[in-house]
Amino acid sequence: MADDPPGLAQQVARNAGEGAVVESIVEVKGMPNRIRWTIVRYKPPEGMTLNGDGVGGVKVKLMAKVAPKEEGSVVSFDVHLGGPALFGPIGMIVAAALRSDISESLQNFVEVFAQA
Hints:
The protein has 116 residues and is α+β, with helices and mostly antiparallel strands. Helices cover 29% and strands 44% of the residues. The protein has a single domain (8-113), classed as Alpha-D-Glucose-1,6-Bisphosphate, Chain A, domain 4 (2-Layer Sandwich), CATH 3.30.530.
């Protein structure tokens, strides 16, 4: 997954609460897809869950959790992907590309925030 446009974090913070909707562009291997995210679980500071609906029937569930650990926190993300775009032979290629991009994005997250 590529970078979301500036402002998504601010949209979520400003509109936070179950049922709130925000949008972002998610890019996979150079192909952008507009995702409409609905906050389905919002429990600060423990975490939140977003359900995403994208172009072509793409479905995404993003679960973020924050847990205390010693003098800091452990942040974990679970991402579930679905929809017709991920079925069949082409879907397998798309799913592999998504896994690769998600892993890269999460590694970037760790590099940016691990020392914060």
